[in-house]
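*** Backbone structure tokens ***
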Amino acid sequence: MNVLAKPGQAAEDEVSTARLKLPLFDEQRGLAGPITRRAQRRSLLIWSAAMLLGLVLCQFGPGAFWSGFGLGLFFPGAGFLYSANPILFVLTPIIFIVSLLMWLLIGAFVAPVLVWLGSAVLAGILAKSGHWDFAQYVVPLLTLGLISLRLLGGSKRLKQQLAVVHKLNRHLMTVDAPAPSSRYEVAEPLTDTDLGALRFTLDLALQPLDQFDGFTTIDQFREAAWRYQLYAIANALSVLRTTRLPAFDGYVDQAQRNAITKMTDLRVWKYWFWENLWGNGRINPDPMVRENIMISGWFGLTLGAHQVSSGDKRFDAPGSLPFRWSNRKTYFYDYPKIVNTLRRNFKKGAMCLFPCEPNWVFAYCNEQGIAGLKLFDQMHGTDHAASLMPLFRQRLEQEFTRADGGQNLIYANRVGFALGGGGLKIIAGNLWMRNMFAPDLAARGWEQVRREFFKYGEQEIVPMGKGDGLDAGNYRKSEDGRAFYPLLMVVAQEMGDREVYEFARKRYDALPAENVEGALRYPGSTTANLTAAMARFASPGAWYRMANIALPKIWREGPRLSHVPYPQVLVALAVSDGRVLELELVPGCEPGRFPLCFSGLRPGQAYRCDADDQVLVATTGGTGEIQLDLKHRQRVHLIPVQ
């Protein structure tokens, strides 16, 4: 007996047939946007002033020290040519590059400053023991030559990039894309493989709050940090509840709340004290008050997704998320306070987007933040995201989109240069979030990916490009797609491209998985595994609907499965039409007789379980319980008795 709509049938009646006109790229732009150019001009003026000072010190300074120091201001290690130390002259730029990586990776802005100024001072000291006077002319000329080559190369690169985007625009003018459906659907029940991914996710989340067994543990500064694994756990379970388990609470709800609560563990967020110290020169451990969108932005999306999927507003309570630094200092946050922190930081600067690590502005993190505002607005009737959206979109297009249509992932707001590219992961990686607040930009990005990276007619993807094989969750490269395919699965699923999703899923499922008591772990980092799980649990446009459309009322009302023992009973489907509860249950270990607990029942109403014709009468609190013999995957209905 199937008293509910079949899985895959819409929960609402209207079907969207709207099409999205894809926006074109700006063909009149330069290599950088106006704010980036302004920062570059400021940096160039500071550098020019330093070189002018260096030239004055070199020509008129009272002794060899000042000449060596002055030439050292031209570029890192330049003064060593004057002090007759060619090895240091060559080695220092390499050390400077390492210091730039430290700045990028852990926010240590002080590192390149110390290398540059420290090498200038050391060059001056060494010059007292002997020097090469010709360096006074070679260093300025070499610097001028390098700048000229850079300018000539930039002009050539811009011409090439605009030629690429011109062809891309001609293509975009001929196509459109379907608008995301606003219709919630009950997806097909979780398969056995999906349930293996679910058990992997739940086993991580349901362990004691102070334990992180099974998490990738390398550092807490970059992408392998625990925080990203916690976000991924909660997000995967949130999307699962909106596609297959809208009428189940139980262990899934507990796992979501555990992942959120673990974010307040000091080991997760104390890294910010050090980054704020050596990146901003501030002694303030507060993880969200200023910058650090990799907590506030990502956490905002995770909290919003949990609230939308569960209806649980416990984290709206003032101070419900205490970040305890010491016995004497605790930073009390909650979802509304985090949202207000995001709004304040978005509004603070002209760029709108704000930093993760000190100085470094990541587009990916900021899109998490604006998506989190969309989720908050959807649940609270506010317009925080809408008020910021015009400027936010403008900055994405002007400052974080390259002249060839590629993406600038990272922007250094103190010096004005950007890092990015046109690889598949770079262009596609953030589209599942972008679909939440700018579906037209997401659709354009996916069309760009399909055009540039897919071989039509062969159902194949162009081999992974530079960086596409890197598993950011453990910093290891692999050619088997262990981190590449999960990301492709997530984006293709959200964009409704079933062909690409199935291609990536089959490739990923072909990898050798380890089965640990029913939990499937694939090669790669914990984050890569959780990303694949999130893709499996989702459905086309699921994240768009979470951010823009309230869940159907009938999914919030009526009978609910409130508790089953884990891992003895796995819930593959749980949905209510407001009157009847439909379940699909699978024994997680051995077959047996297990309790099923219900809530949301009409007090005093009798309900029949069609699996074995048991009848329960709801308590005055609207709860009830039966014992079910579960021997295999089974469809179960709880039906009110007339």
Summary: The mean pLDDT is 92.
